[in-house]
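dumping the sequnces here before i forget
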Amino acid sequence: MTQSIRVAVSTVILTLRRTESGSAVLTLPLVLRTREPFAGQWALPGGWLTDTESPVDAAARTLAETTGLAPSYLEQLYAFGAVDRSPTRVVSIVYWALLRQDDVDAQSAAHRASGRAPENVRWFDVGELPQLAFDHSHIIDYALWRLRNKVGYSRVAHGFLPAEFTLADLREAYEAILGRSLDPANFRRQVDASGSLIPTDRFRTGNPRPARLYRYNTDVALADTGPLRPEETSIR
Amino acid sequence: MTQSIRVAVSTVILTLRRTESGSAVLTLPLVLRTREPFAGQWALPGGWLTDTESPVDAAARTLAETTGLAPSYLEQLYAFGAVDRSPTRVVSIVYWALLRQDDVDAQSAAHRASGRAPENVRWFDVGELPQLAFDHSHIIDYALWRLRNKVGYSRVAHGFLPAEFTLADLREAYEAILGRSLDPANFRRQVDASGSLIPTDRFRTGNPRPARLYRYNTDVALADTGPLRPEETSIR
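..and the predicted 3d for all of it:
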């Protein structure tokens, strides 16, 4: 059985950026392609799967090579294999992760300090994406849909926020994800009902009044991968 | 970039079989391999992805060729790509579906009547699986975990049960999935809270008393594929 199909990997890395006006927006890193096809267009970080590595290892390697990012986990998002998604036949196994902005800053700074900082990586707000190579715009749409629909409070808190955070912090993260405002009282009720957050006895002093700090419930699995093996996930 | 990686597809088809004692058990079809590697062992239905078809089309084609089954949808389960999962390097994109036993019976009978009935297909209860080729035992474990953890009442009802069913029917299906008994009153409360079922004004007469018939709520998406394109799912 002879195939003319190659296997690639890509990663969708999402973080929350604090804008100058104080609001939070979802951003992700893209890489400017220097080769055909789609030379001069932006694409998700990624590359070819090699014969000797698992897909998730290839995703972690190509992400690090292009952006310097090294997330503590990557979750498989989907395998995209439509016949016409690339000029040649390519199946792309796509992974994703949510990262904290301070982790991104630290990893990016270390990457620059090492002298390997690529000039062709740039972070884009998801509402202001450039034209993308291949079907990567579609892949990002799917990742954002998964984020909006299937990721619970605990994972968003763990992925995007520091170890302790206020409910207003978490609500702002959700507002950035959903692209709309949420009622604070309803949001509080839903979070309480989810059991995914644990109140601490500490408060952040501030305006208009002190706000209780929460932490995520580590009993709730973050990336719920069940019996998948370590070499099939990046929870290493 | 030269790769020595081939892409295969497999399908996990689950149905509920009513045993002679009246209980329900999960079963799935396996195919006896006639060629190396793993000749003489059982494997999931599947085959190679060809250059001109999408992965889900290949999964539907190979499933029909081996078993005669033609589910109305297939959902992507996971892409398995560990380096050592096959003697040669193979990435398998696995799809799955829940089927009603009466649909399975009708499709299997039509397949037999067409003279193409394969002698090397057999249905196995998931608690009594034979030794399996490749990592297919692991793949089935993962499918069962997903079924137990992530599939709601509406989808189980739609996948396994006729258009109208009692809460006892649905509870029995869940008991088969979970492998344990459920408290009827608690189960009823959870189903009510899910909003995924709609009570009809019809009853099934019987012992000890008439039982209300329910139907699944078609407003609740069955396979929640979001912005995935038709050629990426089998919702055709």
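Chain B has a mean pLDDT of 90.
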